[in-house]
Amino acid sequence: MSVKISKREDGGVTVVSMSGRLTLGDASAQLRDTLRELLEADKKKIVLNLGDVAYIDSSGLGELVSGFTTVRNSGGELKLANLTQKVNDLLTVTKLYTVFEIHDDETAAVKSFG
Amino acid sequence: MSAEPRRVELRLASRIENVDLGEELARQVAGVAGFDEDEQYKISMSVRECLINALKHGNRGDQSKSMRLNLLLHPDRLEVQVGDQGAGFSLEGIPDPLADENLLKGSGRGLFLVRCFMDNLAVETPADGGALVTMSKRYSSNHNKSAESNAKKEKRK
Question: What ipTM does the predicted assembly reach?
Fold first, then answer.
């Protein structure tokens, strides 16, 4: 079981929507490749909509953190939106909510780029 | 004299798909043991994290080496053992993933999550080598009723 990723543009912000399980292996690699392609295309304002991601393991969390630092080091911003309760709980227990800017929904996340 | 636990024992080749298999098996056994869905999630994710460690850090992806997964149903708790054929490790040597200097690291959260999700966690080095991680979770007070209910749900699937 892997993850599906779709992209759309919204006023200069790229919204990346994921569904499935973000875990060790193909799913984490897919996210890494997607973010790399966006940065290569100079798309540096990114919202990651995790509304349909019900499960993340520690490798998936690590991939989110690596993605965050890669985007930031390229002069961009990666924000999270629409977290499920389980994912929200994981970010809380691992203190990663202090790292990411997290929004309740995609619209608010896009607007926050100003 | 304590009762002999019911046991499920597996030996798995070091492959990612076997991590998924072990996780799913643990979820089902936890259901049979009477744990609710949230506890099943926590137990199966803990098993997943330990199998990932066994695969990546213990066996270093060497598919000729195997991972061991034992699930033991005791009268008062579910005990899980995950073994590998690596060099072994100790919990004391693992950095705290919540420390400021580790927060932005891309790895190092697996055993922390296991500690959060399970009641006990220990690591030993058996005489035949490798690492053996043992963790357990106690049943809730109404676990007999839950076990019956979960068994009916599984039958209906």
Answer: 0.92
